[in-house]
Amino acid sequence: MPSGSASQSGSANAAGQLPSAPTGSDRVIWSGVEGSGKSVALTFDDGPDPQWTPQVLALLAQHHAKATFCEIGPLAQRYPNLTKAIIAGGDRLCDHSVHHDEQQSRKPVEYNIHEIVDAKREISDAAGNGAKLMYYRAPGGDWSTTVRVIAGANHLRPLGWSDDANDWRRPGVDGILRNINQDLRPGAIILMHDGGGDRSQTVQALARLLHQLDAQGYSYGFPA
Ligand SMILES: [Zn+2]
Predict the structure, then answer these.
(1) Selected catalytic residue, list 96, 100, 114, 193
(2) What integer pLDDT is reported at residue 1 of this predicted model?
(3) Neighbours of 195 (CB within 10 A)
(4) Residue 139: which H helix or E strand, with range?
């Protein structure tokens, strides 16, 4: 820690200046799961969605599996009960911006602050009871220094992934499982989607994946 630096408060200012982040908090988590043992972190992006999110939650509950949901702020506001159900199930929430702009980092700092800070508030308000968000995931993996520093200064760890299901391309259930198994290993952070389009393939793949992971002795944790 730099000498003389007290712990800095994370609120972004309106003047469009970069807030300073505590040391280390702006590093992207690419892999690693909390706790010990053979585990993976399941993550679901672009929801909540009234059709798919409940199906994902039901499958997770059947397998006593936990996951992290990276939500779009306005969708969390539209479907607060889904956001509450995620917290009630013991899962975690992650900020996935207001507009899912994959070129966000090329735009002014003020815009980046709005995308990150306003979505955090929207998701947190939807979850209620002072629910805390721990992570920020940049839409499209658009990780600039600006994005990482704003996230870190707002107590959101930048959350990447190590194992991309590419489920949004809808390659078929077997294709999704093949994509996941290619990079599956203890500590993997698996990226899937519970929103943003027809996720019937994702739900079917998840049902099979959870059986497979159970049989392989994996447990389910949160990114660390
Ligand atoms: Zn996304």
Answers:
(1) 193
(2) 35
(3) 27
(4) none
Q: What is the pLDDT of residue 9?
A: 39
Q: Greatest CA separation found in the chain?
A: 55
Compute the distance between CA of residue 161 and CA of residue 106 in angstroms, rounded to an integer. Answer: 22
Does residue 183 have an active-site annotation? no
Q: Tell me the CB-side half-sphere exposure of residue 78, using CA atoms within 13 A.
A: 10
Q: Containing H/E element for 92?
A: strand 92-95
What are residue 63's phi and psi, to 5 degrees?
A: -105, 10
Is residue 45 annotated as a catalytic residue, yes or no?
A: yes
CATH number for 39-220 (one of 3.20.20.370, 3.30.1050.10, 1.10.287.110, 3.40.50.10840): it is 3.20.20.370
The fraction of the chain above a pLDDT of 70, given in percent, is: 90
Instruction: Give the confidence band of 130 by pLDDT, cuts at 50, 70, 90.
Output: confident
pLDDT band (50, 70, 90) for residue 6? very low
pTM, to two decimals: 0.91
Instruction: Give ion ligand 1 contacts, CB < 5 A.
Output: 45-46, 139
